[in-house]
Amino acid sequence: MTGPAPDLAGKRVLIVLTGGIACYKVPEVIRRLKERGAFVRALMTEAATRFVTPLTVGAVSSDRVYTELWSRDEEAEVGHIRLARDGDLVLVAPATAHTLAKMAHGLADDLASTVLLATRAPILAAPAMNPAMWQHPATQANLRTLRDRGVTIIGPASGAMAEPETGPGRMVEPADLVTAVTDRLVPRPGPLTGRTAIVTSGPTHEPIDPVRFIANRSSGKQGHAIAEALARAGASVTLVTGPVILPDPPGVACLHVETAEQMCAAVEAALPADIAVCAAAVADWRVANAGTSKIKKVSGDLPILELTENPDILAGLGRHPTARPTLLVGFAAETDRVIEHAQAKRLKKRCDWILANDVSPETGTFGGEHNRVHLITADGVESWPQISKSAVASRLVAAIQAVFTA
Ligand SMILES: Cc1cc2nc3c(=O)[nH]c(=O)nc-3n(C[C@H](O)[C@H](O)[C@H](O)COP(=O)(O)O)c2cc1C
Predict the structure, then answer these.
(1) Do the domain assignments include residue 225?
(2) Which residue's CA is the nearest one to ligand 1's atom 9?
(3) Residues 292 and 334 in one domain
């Protein structure tokens, strides 16, 4: 029987295990990475050694496992700075809430955190924790900090946990971790290799005051699926996303923004691009007189919100003076006369294609798993059946590939 191709031959992966139940899955990750030819070195926090022994991890990695910052042996043999410089990539799996917090704050009080602070290699982290810990604002703020600094967060997945609880917090499966590592170390060529793409996704939040905002029901599922599908096809993808509760798609550079103005600036900064897909539900208006402190409720005195127009990102790209993407795709979320409105939008915004969808409440499109879209081009209208959002993404990317490989 032959194993997977040794596409990681010569690559060095440093795995940092931290103290969660999901440690039991990591020997499987190490085994699979080694099967692909990687040299894997593991280091463990003290808490991680409570869940799986260094002996087990070392037996699978065929190497010494590092656990101590203050060990004369370990320091003399490799030293924490050399360990930090040793890998082409660092994978933190599982990544506890505690270690993510330490990373976000630059703490370095044990071997794992010191190495994570000293490394210059790209860091991938696979969080695993109870859903309440995952959803805690402190964890979410730490994740934002880490993402902004270029750490790639993989997962977590949703589903049943070790405790009798379900929700987001399960570490992604070993096979998915190995794919994420492989994609990062040896990007696979695809039909869109060499092409650059910008995708916008999710809603925008427009502040009314520091605590209130105007939002919409977009979940970001469609935009994120498109970004992931473009990356799978080999494109170099920048995803500019508004506030969503989805993990960053693998292999995609993610920029997190809140407002339409921030999204517009992030898109502009990401130009030039061959492809732009504007799937975000960008607020048309923002509050012109947003309060800088919380607007107080005064009985009988209703605040008047004055609205002003937001920048139109799609139209801005359509008539960009220097960097109009070669293929510009917009979305039109309509509740009535869907095709007619979308055709008008395509011309008005000067984009090449529009994916039009019916978002009237009974369709369940916003936030749902499925979408029913019509692809509107200069040649006419192609109506797709109701399919999953990832199937819409694959079909769109197949159409994009056809343009660039024609
Ligand atoms: C049985 C048990 C399971 C735990 N599972 C997790 C977990 O899945 N994720 C997590 O973030 N913390 C979990 N913890 C808490 C961490 O082990 C604890 O925060 C520890 O300080 C983490 O240290 P480290 O990040 O240095 O490894 C668990 C604790 C226990 C006792």
Answers:
(1) yes
(2) 129
(3) yes
